């Protein structure tokens, strides 16, 4: 739905119906039905216009929410990529730490074997 549809509301072209122009054979109840239908049609048109406006506002809100969700999805994706990069860096640092510990242990063993440390 676009705004153009909401800008073209349902309009009634009411012709005034006077009870005197109704046929004489109409019962009083039927006369009342005919006359009341005019006001009912006005209420129906009003509700149709309200519904069109509500639908347009809902679509506008949904479109805005779609934009927000798309932005959030991009942000989540960027964070995931950064997390993967950080995980890779952590693994590299962990491997370097293990290698450094092995070298320290080898140096300590060499110093012990020469009697330089206990």
Describe, in plain words, how this protein is organized in 3D.
By secondary structure, this protein is mostly helical. It has a domain of 81 residues. Helix content is 77%, strand content 0%. It is built from 2 helices and no strands. This is Tail needle protein. It comes from Candidatus Williamhamiltonella defendens.
Q: What order do the helices and strands come in, and which of them pair?
A:
Blueprint: H1 3-7, H2 28-113
> How many beta-strand segments?
0
**Global outline:** rod-shaped
Termini distance?
85 Å
Task: Supply the number of helical segments.
Answer: 2
What is the alpha-carbon Rg in Å?
40 Å
The SS-based structural class is mainly alpha
Q: Low-confidence spans: pLDDT under 50, at least 5 residues?
A: none
The averaged pLDDT comes out at 86
Query: H/E element string?
Result: HH
* Sheet with the most strands, sense and barrel status: none
Helix content: over 70%
Give the percentage of residues in beta strands: under 5%
Please give a quick description of this structure.
The protein is mostly helical and 118 residues long. It contains two helices and no strands.
Defining traits:
2 helices; Tail needle protein; mainly alpha; 118 residues
